[in-house]
Amino acid sequence: MSWFRPSSLALGLAFSASLATAANIQVTVGKDSKLEFNPPSIKAQIGDTITYKFFSKNHAVAQSTFADPCHLQDNGVFSGFTPNASPDVAAPTDFTITVNDTKPLWFYCPQTNGDHCQKGMVHAINAPDTGNTFDAYKAKAQQAATPSTPPAGTLSVGGLRKLHIDVGFNGELMFNPNNVTELVGTVVEFSYNPANHSIVQSSFDKPCQPIDRDGGGFVAPFVPTQQTPSGVTFEVTLTNTDPIWFYCAQTKKSHCQSGMVGSINAAAEGAKTFQAFKDLAAKASPSTIGPDTPVVGALKLNGTFIANVGGNVLDTTTLDPSLGGQIPPPDMNYPPYIGGMAGGDQPANYNWGDNITDEAVAIFKSLQYIDNFIVALLLEGFSQLSQGQWSEVYPGSITQSLGSLVAQSLIHRRTYTDSLQHFGKDVVSVCDKFDFAAALTDVDTWLATVLTGLHLSIGATLDALTLLATSDPWTTPALATGLGSQARMSALVNLMQNHVAAAAPREVLIPNTLATSYVASHYATDSSCAPPSGDSAKAFPALVIKNKTVQPDTNRVKAITIEIPKGTTGGLFIAWLGPWGGLKYTSVDAQSSTADVPDSLSGHVWAVLTNKDGVSAADLDTVTVAGPEIMWVSQQWAVSDL
């Protein structure tokens, strides 16, 4: 019986993979006072986003059919009109759509004052090169009936309309823009700048004080920062056209009273204009802010949602690679935003037993050593994703998920450090000399290394569960409950690398000694980064795979050719560690240094070079010559077969 539609599964896999490489394409609308979209016609892939930037004087983006230009089609995309006086500085409001298929999409500006569409102000996505081409659409638009639709005042639909407001613009005590008119449904995004500001909604009559009403208003915390941009944003969505008043509650230099206030949809005339609000603020009593933030809106750090900061200050100064070197005591938390990014903090109580065995101490130190490596690797790469050279590689949803992985890894490591400290045992010193130069060459290499680290941690944790279930039963829930998030994240990274999310029904167990050896042999630069056992014999040389023989029709790896370590004599074997504790051996040909890959394996497996076969996984380190090394063998079926 089939439990899925093959075409739907294939499409889903393709769509998931496309998200990992999605591009953002920017299109200007009316720049330099020209009635044109630039570029007028573009090609886009599934998952790509298109952001429209508006210039003078008052333009919009509307979707039509090819046959009926200048008129909004049923259920068509519409940005809403966006007035702007500048011909060369974009309006603070933009509009973004996501491409869901590669069918042609036709757009135009519906401004009737000057009949923009009929004068050729049209745009296309994925227009064909023959037949219904972009030029043919433009020619039809120039003959279209007037007036264009929809009229001014129509709300946006089919995309994300976003108003960008800078907090502390250009180092000044101001919001920019500070007085705007916007449509219902618009997302207002406040972006923090230096030095230490907050965002609080007030009433008109009581500037500089939180609004006093049922449900309150939006409140965003103080964010001390010296970075521009800081990476911290706060979003609220306009649900009606009522005027909104807001201020910065910083009392140092009296920000609110000094004019750091703003309004949305304030009246242009009368007693309650923006200027009247600003004048009232200048005479207001000292500013205040609530004790807990954020309230109502969505606070994000580099795209990652933060549910609560544990007060009214978001300290982001520690979000850098040095965070990996900090091992807090069990009764001390990381900065609150880490728990917000992770989806929760470490448990208050691990239900520790009365004691911990020496074996459990050794295993927990091995697991912490592996997690020290993962945390350091993630922090180094995420700094490039959030603010460095990779900042434009992935859409926000992917960056947000990877940010959650960083925070979860910090929380995950505390299972070992909290437990060791609780029983008065030493934790493993954090090595600051892991060699990540090759891993950080590009974002794909970094992701592949992250995936390897996740598989190391998952496999070593499974080994620990089997070894400690009887002697230290309290460790079972402490270890097992951390596997889920790591497995989900490895599935995400698999998709980003065009692999099936879960190619095997079980995870792969790897002995702790081999897992720590992998980290040491690949990334440790000196003795300070050696495995915690201190036994140099456990740091086996890396297994070098020189070539893979791939079966063309299935894309499965059928055999590997390895580099034999110098001084190695006698018969050699490859031990293949597969799902559910699976362990198979194949011999290494003495002449070609080639070993077959067992047909039953799927997904990621570990290969270990040994001098004996038939040895159990528990004793594998006693016969290991080199390795382990991770390999993608292939899923048991190809998407093209479905």
Automatic annotation (TrEMBL):
Residues 1-22 form the signal peptide. Keywords: Signal. InterPro entries: Cupredoxin, Ser-rich/MCO-related. SUPFAM superfamilies: Cupredoxins. The keyword Protein biosynthesis does not apply. The keyword Heme does not apply. Gene3D superfamilies: Cupredoxins - blue copper proteins (2.60.40.420). This is Phytocyanin domain-containing protein. The lineage of its organism: Eukaryota, Fungi, Dikarya, Ascomycota, Pezizomycotina.
